[in-house]
TrEMBL record, chain A:
SUPFAM superfamilies: HydA/Nqo6-like (SSF56770). It holds the Pfam family NiFe_hyd_SSU_C. Its cofactor is [4Fe-4S] cluster; [3Fe-4S] cluster. [3Fe-4S] cluster binds at C248, C266, C269. GO terms for cellular component: [Ni-Fe] hydrogenase complex; cell envelope; ferredoxin hydrogenase complex; membrane. This is hydrogenase (acceptor). Belongs to the [NiFe]/[NiFeSe] hydrogenase small subunit family. It is found in: Cell envelope. Its EC number is 1.12.99.6. [4Fe-4S] cluster 1 binds at C19, C22, C122, C170. It comes from Bradyrhizobium oligotrophicum S58.
TrEMBL record, chain B:
The gene is hupV. Its cofactor is Ni(2+); Fe cation. It comes from the Bacteria. Ni(2+) binds at C60, C63, C474. It holds the Pfam family NiFeSe_Hases. This is Uptake hydrogenase accessory protein HupV. PANTHER family: HYDROGENASE EXPRESSION_FORMATION PROTEIN HUPK, HYDROGENASE-2 LARGE CHAIN.
Length: 339, 480
């Protein structure tokens, strides 16, 4: 990593067609706050639209100085999709005060950065703005859904020779974002540390299912049937955690949560194209069998194992699966409570 | 006359452009542009109704719970349901936590750093203010951000995660709270109260919300530590009660509904200071100056069709009007309509809303929310359900009206053959930062900016920044 005279990594954070949620998430990072954490990590946040003092023409001057090579840019972070429309004009998302679209600013600035990071599934793949008829021609920085390309093109490489690093998620865990940024600045994250859609493998080598607190119910195919029940959410309520990458259930969100702990399905928000699904909280089935089975498990095996495990489901697990409170606590078979 | 453009306008949620006509160092006319359009209303059309619970919250990362519960309220109407009382309480706790976190984020991260700017270096109060509030470097953020993160741990327990949770359903919330979790919620609420009483107010919350007149507020703040008193001193030194006067009419949809009704009541407050019932059927949206094609004025019947080349348009934001009038929404409106004594007295004394009173209303509300969160946690009945079964949605027109931190938020849903036929959203900043309407009447911020002194600083004038940020705009919600 290039460092400046102050020895700090210079990071510019921009927002495209964004909800701001990735910033709201990362503001939860750090025991003494994100700003302190950045300083301690040697990162100088040269501008961020939500938190920086500089506004108006001070910002335009900074962006022009980077574009003209007068200011160095180590990390360029984008939050939000790149709205290319209408007709590649980018006018659905202008950078105020510049008479120029975010799309065109990104085309200028991205080649000048050592590393380009897409935070959130919008910046990575297009995300929610790309759903349905995609009114704004929204794409990710280097992907359009799961197809490589996007705003910058398949061949884009930042100055350090890396494609865009995609910290997917909607919104991503603050830890995913900070750890990815710091792995880049420490030189520990290279092209071999990314999966086929640009996600850091230290996150993407896990499934959201791993560590799920409902795992006992999953093992026995003891399923919740309606919202707020305690059972597995995969069979009826749309959960895609067995197919979606992320260590969601191995770390805590907001001090102890996760989607499945919260009682609702994983909607695979780290996956390209998650926005195109429908009926998120219902499991699509064919002949009574969920369509979205674990990707690396033959269907026949899954069906056979499910039948076997259902036949062996302990009463406690079966009863608790369709209750919102624990109605039968764990206990030895001789306990009166579990008889 | 000179015309200046202010932008990118940061430390608001999203991006904003403001064009000002200046004569003799004062603003004579303002045009407010929402420069981002994403098309959520178009994206929602044709989908299964419950998909709104996934899509609509993602309009906004700072008030996603508000967006969730507006969508859930419209869907609840479509299903003819009553939510489980525990689910309503859990929703209120999470919603209050989000709104309080928003108020803190606004005060510490967005608004106060302007007073640390070099433009004020000659003022006696500047050095202490700069030490405390300079953007990203001041001492306040080191206390406020961890307090915010701790408060949002309420989301980990009730909602799984924040932002963008699916916990808020038409029938209630998706997880029952157990005893240990209630104890943890209590601990978070106590920690939040501690932060407010130690850092923000330097006093008991009960004493803060008991303040009822401008004189009481003045004597309370004398010699007091804490960031609220610090703001009040700066506000007086800069006469912020003369800055950014709003259009007059205030509105609230009512907030934190439970089985007994709304904790903050719905209504309007007229120029004359009368509190009246909310004429919700008289809400319209005008697109004369928006890059949108004409459809219906009624949000229940209208669609959103962008037209980037439309002449005379200057914003992606439509212009919502109530009985034809522009309306200010937000914490100040909510508190005034609910009859909060101090806010009512300040509005009366100052002749309306202004920069100082908007900030005071937010902080008073934060103190109230901390107390309400404590009460709602106590009221949970742990052995009873948190969610009732959602049924099928009926075809027809439905509406969900809630209050986000920034003011009134409405979702108008039309269902046909089990699919979303139309979905229209009017967000708080759509009201506050609306462009002109067909009669040429300016939106609330456009009116509030007129008269602002910019002196020789032009686009760099800090006064403009104060007026704009006093509304706590959320531009990503505005045009959505």
């Amino acid at each position: 990593m290039t460092v400046g005279s102050e020895g700090m990594t210079r990071m510019l954070w921009l927002q495209g067609a964004s909800c701001g949620g990735c910033t709201m998430s990362i503001l939860e990072s750090g025991a003494s706050g994100w700003f302190d954490e950045l300083r301690q990590s040697g990162i100088d946040l040269i501008w961020h639209p939500s938190v920086s003092e500089q506004t108006g023409d001070e910002v335009v001057e900074l962006l022009e100085a980077i574009r003209d090579g007068r200011e160095r840019l180590d990390l360029l972070v984008l939050e939000g999709s790149v709205a290319r429309g209408p007709s590649l004009s980018g006018r659905f998302n202008m950078l105020a005060g510049t008479n120029r679209s975010i799309y065109h600013w990104l085309l200028d600035l991205a080649p000048l950065a050592d590393y380009v990071v897409a935070v959130g599934s919008c910046a990575a793949y297009g995300g929610i703005p790309a759903a349905g008829i995609n009114p704004t021609d929204a794409v990710g920085l280097q992907f359009e859904g799961s197809d490589v390309g996007g705003a910058l093109g398949a061949g884009f490489r930042s100055k350090r020779g890396l494609p865009v690093i995609n910290v997917a998620g909607c919104a991503p865990h603050p830890g995913w974002m900070m750890e990815s940024l710091l792995a880049l600045t420490s030189g520990d994250l290279g092209a071999d540390g990314l999966d086929t859609v640009g996600r850091p493998t230290f996150i993407a080598n896990h499934l959201a299912h791993h560590g799920c607190s409902r795992n006992e119910f999953y093992e026995f195919k003891a399923s919740a049937e309606t919202m707020s029940e305690r059972g597995c959410l995969m069979e009826h309520l749309g959960c895609r955690a067995t197919q979606a990458v992320g260590d969601c259930n191995q770390r805590s969100w907001n001090g102890g949560g996760s989607c499945t702990k919260g009682g609702y399905a994983c909607i695979a928000c780290t996956s390209p194209g998650f926005e195109s699904a429908q009926n998120y909280l219902q499991t699509a089935k064919l002949a009574g069998i969920p369509v979205g089975l674990p990707t690396d498990m033959p269907k026949a095996w899954f069906v056979a194992l499910a039948a076997l495990s259902k036949s062996a489901t302990p009463r406690r697990v079966r009863i608790n699966a369709t209750a919102d409170h624990v109605v039968m606590p764990p206990g030895r078979p001789s306990d009166k409570r579990s008889s | 006359m000179t015309r200046i453009t202010v932008g990118p306008f940061n430390r608001v949620e999203g991006d904003l452009e403001v064009r000002l006509d200046i004569e003799s160092g004062r603003v004579t006319r303002a045009e407010v542009t929402a420069p981002l359009y994403r098309g959520f209303e178009q994206i929602l059309e044709g989908r299964p109704p419950l998909d709104a619970l996934v899509i609509a919250p993602r309009i906004c990362g700072i008030c996603s719970v508000s967006q969730s519960i507006a969508a859930a309220a419209a869907l609840r109407q479509a299903m003819g349901l009553a939510a489980a009382p525990n689910g309503i309480l859990a929703t209120n706790i999470a919603h209050a936590a989000e709104n309080a976190a928003d108020h803190l984020t606004h005060f510490y991260i967005f608004f106060m750093p302007d007073f640390a700017r070099d433009a004020y270096a000659s003022h006696a109060w500047h050095s202490a203010t700069a030490e405390r509030f300079t953007a990203t470097k001041g001492s306040a953020a080191r206390e406020a951000l961890p307090a915010r993160a701790r408060l949002l741990e309420i989301m980990g327990i009730i909602a799984g995660k924040w932002p963008h949770s699916l916990a808020f359903q038409p029938g209630g919330t998706t997880r029952a709270i157990e005893l240990g979790e209630r104890i943890r919620l209590n601990a978070i609420a106590a920690s939040f109260r501690g932060f407010l009483e130690r850092v923000v107010f330097a006093d008991k919350l009960e004493n803060v919300i008991a303040l009822s007149t401008p004189d009481e507020l003045d004597s309370w703040r004398e010699g007091r530590g804490g960031d609220f008193a610090h703001f009040l001193r700066v506000a007086d030194a800069l006469s912020l009660n003369d800055l950014g006067t709003g259009p007059g009419l205030l509105m609230s949809f009512g907030a934190y509904h439970d089985v007994d009704g709304a904790h903050f009541r719905a209504g309007i407050r007229t120029d004359a200071g009368e509190i009246e019932a909310l004429p919700a059927h008289r809400i319209t949206e005008d697109v004369s100056h928006a890059w949108m094609r004409e459809t219906s004025l009624d949000p229940a019947e209208s669609r959103t069709v962008p037209d980037a080349d439309k002449a005379d348009a200057y914003s992606w934001c439509k212009a919502p009007r109530l009985a034809g009038e522009p309306v200010e929404v937000g914490a100040l409106a909510r508190q005034a309509i609910n009859g909060q004594q101090l806010i009512t007295a300040l509005i009366t004394a100052d002749g309306g809303s202004n920069v100082r009173n908007r900030v005071i209303a937010r902080l008073i509300e934060t103190a109230q929310l901390a107390l309400s969160i404590e009460q709602w946690i106590k009221a949970l009945r742990l052995n009873e359900p948190f969610c009732v079964n959602s049924g099928e949605t009926a075809d027809g027109h439905f509406v969900g009206l809630v209050e986000a931190a920034r003011g009134s938020l409405g979702h108008w849903l039309a269902v046909r053959s089990g699919r979303i036929e139309r979905f229209q959203i009017i967000a708080p900043t759509s009201w506050n930062f609306s462009p002109r309407d067909a009669d040429g009447v300016a939106g609330p911020l456009e009116q509030a900016l007129v008269g602002t002194e910019v002196g020789t600083a032009g686009a760099r004038a800090v006064s403009i920044q104060h007026v704009v940020r006093s509304f706590d705009p959320c531009m990503v919600c505005t045009a959505h």
